Amino acid sequence: MADRREKISAKDTAPTAEDIFGRSDYIANVLDAVRIGVVLAEFGSGPDDVIYHRSRTLEEIFGIPADYPQDAGSWTKLMVEPEKMLALFREQYEKRIPEFETVYRIKRVSDGEVRWIYGKGRLEFTDDGTPRRLIGTVQDITAQKEQEENLDTFRIAADNSFDSIFWLDKDAHFTYVNEQACRSLGYTREELLAMDLWRIDTVFSKEAWDRNWKDYASGNLKGKLFETIHRRKDGTTFPAEVVPLHLKLGDEEIHIASVRDITERRRSEQLMKDSEVKVTNIIKAMPSGAAMIVNRKFRKVSARFCEITGYGEDELFNQPTRTLFPDDGTYHDIERNLYTLADTGGLGRTESTFKKKDGSLIQVQISASLLPQSDSSQRSLVATFEDISQRKAAEADREKLQSELIQSQKMESIGRLAG
Question: pTM to 2 decimals?
Answer without folding.
Answer: 0.46
